[in-house]
Amino acid sequence: MRDLVYSVSVLCKHNKDGSFGTAAERQKSLKAAMQSLSDAGYGIRDVKQLKGKHIRYLVEKWKSDPNISTGTIKNRMSHLRWLAERIGNPRIVERSNSSYHIENRKYVDNHSNKAKSLLESNLERLTDDFVRYSLRLQQAFGLRREEAIKFQPKFADRETEIVLKGSWCKGGRERMIPITTPEQRRLLDEIHVFCRENNTQSLIPRHKTYEQQMRTYEYQTAKVGEVKNHGLRHRYAQKRYEELSGLLSPKKGGKTSRRLSESEKQANQEARLQVSSELGHNREEITAVYLGR
After folding, report:
1. Quick one: fold of 107-293?
2. What pTM was estimated for this model as a whole?
3. pLDDT above 70 for 107
4. Cβ neighbours of residue 203 under 8 Å, at least 6 residues apart?
5. CB atoms < 10 A from the CB of 126, how many?
């Protein structure tokens, strides 16, 4: 029923926790889930009528679809838990995914490497300087797209590190990234000058909203062939890992964890924790996506 989808849409619009991207993805996921319940014939008309049986139906439906990965299911479960909290009934969703027999994510893949670098020729073809600087920030500091678009140099630049506001970041978590190279310092200095000359605090033009600039970013990057720019985070992660540990990551042909010496294992663990922090993750295991294992 449209009423159910509408009710979750209204709730999401009034509870925009986290970054724009996080909130948008959560709303899209929950609207699709409510549509699935309606299509299945459940007669509820408001999200406050949700019960455990509805959650179990959704989980089984997702698990039976070979095109939906374990990671996607776990993301959807986090959206459902968020929804359950907002409607004041958290018990309708079990605390542990294991209660639904959802498998653990498989992070390890030492063969495919998604790391990429920006092509200077493509950067020169961009007609929007704001987008150009956002892309260069993504490469230099491993930022997500939203973080690089919302970046405010006057706030972020702390001489030896940059600080990202929680409102720019996935999950609403503020974080710090050290400035370790002259190239990073020069880029930040350029962005300071650029923002002053354009009378703007961030890498969003004064006459545009974030959503409008994001569409400009998407159009410009697609036009010059700079797509899949999450690969810039992969590149940053691998570069930082090498700097911190003195080791090549498995994704780049380095030793796997089983082949490391005791001293290398310690360096590996410390570097992974630091890389995870700089990327805005709280878990060391997620680094396997970027570095391999």
Report:
1. hpI Integrase; Chain A (1.10.443)
2. 0.76
3. no
4. 130, 133, 134, 137, 148, 149, 150, 151, 191, 195, 213
5. 18
